[in-house]
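Chapter summary example: a protein plus norvaline.
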Amino acid sequence: MKQDMISILDFEMEIDETLDLAMKMKAKIKGGGQFQPLKGKHMSMIFEKPSLRTRVSFEIGFSHLGGTALYLSPSEIQIGKRESVYDVAKVVSRYVDVIMYRAFSNKIMRELALNADVPVINALDDMEHPCQIMADFLTIKENKGSLKGLKLVYLGDGNNVCNSLMLGSAAVGMNMVVACPFGYEPDAEITKRAQKLGEKNGCKIEIVREPDLAVKDADVIYTDTWVSMGDEAEKEKRQADFPPFQVNKKLIAHAKPDYIFLHCLPAHRNEEVTDEIIDSPNSKVFDEAENRMWAQMAVIVKLVAPESMSLL
Ligand code: CP
Ligand code: NVA
């Protein structure tokens, strides 16, 4: 049966293995070697929203693996408008070996995955951004050696990235504190699920209101935009509600001295994070952006050519 990655928990038991694979591929290819298990394979990349990292990292990553990727822009397919989700899933499955999809709706994401005959990878929707979290964890592992037992603090909007980070942290046993204003909490169901899973894996997933207290002894500080794609109508209200949650010098004084700063990007400099922090030596945001590619390559290999893993 085919496997998808719609939620980070679709890889719940495979996060470590995926990160190891990503590290091996990164070392080999950056060292001048080749690993091309996807020769003759094709991927379609369906975008309903803009992108820099996702588009480039998927397309270049797939070509590193020897395959060919096809970009489909927001105006092209219009899933559910020009054609039913079911028909799109069936048709695209006849051409390609894997579908990458960036969507407005998690409901449509799931409908596409349910009806596609090939693996579907969620490249962001309104609920989750699992590929981002795989790259974040790879970056944390590179800097801290492991994930279990660390403290990650997320400041700002309880959005798609925050939801996936909570689920992923719970799966790997990393403590996570979300500091957000009232009314901007992460999804309630996902929070419950993450807290329950965290208990099982020996870590705590908490939601608090005081940024200063949250950041105390943090190993990782993470933030994202206050206005996600699709939230533009609330821009003014959000810009008024979020400033106390800005990542700045005063706030990070409470973190461990060797904390690392992460941001999925694009960043809105001097809104959710100051230049001083994002440009500091503690900031790993560009390694994190690079790691989108290595982490996704590992996800793709696991979904499309798992037998090739032993050849690395
Ligand atoms: N982080 C991220 O997904 O960036 P893009 O929106 O540019 O793809
Ligand atoms: N939360 C942001 C992430 C962008 C990569 C958004 O959904 O727009």
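Key point: The longest strand covers residues 42-47.
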